[in-house]
Automatic annotation (TrEMBL):
This is Integral membrane protein. Keywords: Membrane, Transmembrane, Transmembrane helix. The chain crosses the membrane at residues 7-26, 32-57, 69-86, 106-126. The keyword Transmembrane applies.
Amino acid sequence: MRATRVLAGVAGVALMGFGVSLLLEVRDLTGVLVWLGGAVVLHDVVIAPLVLLAGLVAVRGRARGPVRGALVVAGALTVVALPALLRPGRTANSSVLPLDYPRNWMIALVVVAAGTALVLAARGLIRRRRPPT
C-alpha cells in the first residue's frame, strides 16, 4: 500500500513539473490565469454545490457515494466538453472540430452511468452473499 502511494506521489510531482514547464513557455499568462480562475469559480460555485445537492436529494444510504462520484465525473466531462459543445455549426476548416462531440459526450456520460450501476450492483451482490453476523 505504501509503495503505491509513493509511486502515485512521484507520478503526480512529475506531472506537475511537466505542467509548470509548459506554463513557462506561455508568452501571455493573462488568458491562462482567466481560464484557471474561471475553472475554480465554476467548480466551487456551480458544480460542487449541484453535485452535493443532487446526491443529498436523489440518493439515500449506501448508494450516495458512487452516485456523487458519478456526478463529479459527469460534471468534469461536461466542463471539458463545453467549448466543443457550444461551438455553433460547421467551421470552414473541417479539421478544427472533426468529430461528433455532442454524441461522444453523451456516450461518455452513458459509460459513467453504466459504470456506476455496475458498482452499485456489485455492492448489492456482495452484501447479499455475506453471512449474517
